[in-house]
TrEMBL record:
Signal peptide: none annotated. InterPro entries: TusA-like, TusA-like_sf. This is TusA-related sulfurtransferase. Residues 7-31 form the UPF0033 domain. Gene3D superfamilies: TusA-like domain. PROSITE patterns: UPF0033. Pfam families: TusA. Belongs to the sulfur carrier protein TusA family. Keywords: Transferase.
Length: 75
């Protein structure tokens, strides 16, 4: 997968991972991919809900050692 930008939001609590993801996504063009790494359990629901509401697509998501990684394609 071709990732255009990586956002390290580990250690940040809600709503900061979504706020930072929105800011990072604003720097990308349509079709580019943002990788978001977070430790906030709420992100499992918050990031997909935000992406869907914003017209973006969650390509993949994984959880490993308490870190949630999302790959979001800009709509």
């Amino acid at each position: 997968m071709n990732v255009n930008k990586v956002l390290d939001a580990k250690g940040l609590a809600c709503p900061m991972p979504v706020v930072k993801a929105k800011k990072a996504m604003d720097e990308l063009t349509s079709g580019q991919v943002l990788e978001v790494q977070t430790t906030d359990k709420g992100s499992k629901n918050d990031l997909p809900a935000w992406a869907n509401a914003s017209g973006h697509t969650i390509i993949d998501m994984k959880e490993e050692n308490g870190v949630f990684t999302f790959w979001i394609q800009k709509g």
